[in-house]
Amino acid sequence: ENLTKQSVAELFKPKNASIVHQIIETDIWEMKNVILVFYESRYLDEDQRERQYIEGNLLIPNQKNQYKKVLISKFEDDNVDTEINSIFFANADKDKEKELIILTKNQHRLQYLYDGTEYSTFVFDNFKKVKTPKEMTLLADISNELFGGFDGFLEDNPNSKAKFKTAEQVKKQLKKLGY
User: From the CB of residue 79, how many other CB atoms can be counted at a distance below 10 Å?
Assistant: First the structure.
């Protein structure tokens, strides 16, 4: 039977999760028709507060129309919902292969202290199909260097501006850094 990216994504969907962000199918790192899918889940923590996280996965096909799941990462804030803002590939390290870059955002609001959006950047290293990992490797240093920042009101900075909110801004900065 012919599997669509939607039907494959549904097969791997965790119980009670929903698919967020558009499902992407792409050729990357010498692998064909790799599916990138993001699942949102909600749960109650030990204080009975509702929490949310997003789990990103790469689904890599083999010859037999079966897929291997690689966890990109779990994106979770300790308070508020996380949203996937952008997904793209760009070079962010010394090798020639592009890295997977994911931009997330969180809305934060606490009266008189802060009110706005925090932007984060996560850079994941490429890998070879023969050495498919269970989970992708986060390149922490460059991710931190590309941390988007806060857009909105902060008590000590009422007009806080985020530095990196879009793929375009991050790519520009990577070029500046020599990648």
Answer: 12
The model's pTM is: 0.94
The DSSP code for 176 is H
pLDDT in tens, 124-143: 999 998 889 999 999 999 99
CA 92 to chain centre: 15
> Are the beta carbons of 85 and 56 closer than 8 angstroms?
no
List, in sequence order, the alpha helices (H) in the chain. Answer: 5-11, 140-145, 167-176
CA distance 20 to 42: 13
The CB-side HSE value for 176 (13 A sphere, CA atoms) comes to: 9
The C-alpha atoms of residue 51 and residue 139 are separated, in whole angstroms, by 26
Segment 40-94, tens digit of pLDDT: 999 999 999 999 999 999 999 987 779 999 999 999 998 899 999 999 999 999 9
Beta bridge partners, 72, equal: none
* CA separation for the pair 3, 20 (Å, rounded): 20
C-alpha–C-alpha distance, residues 31 and 143, integer Å: 24
Residues 6+ apart with CB under 8 A from 156: none
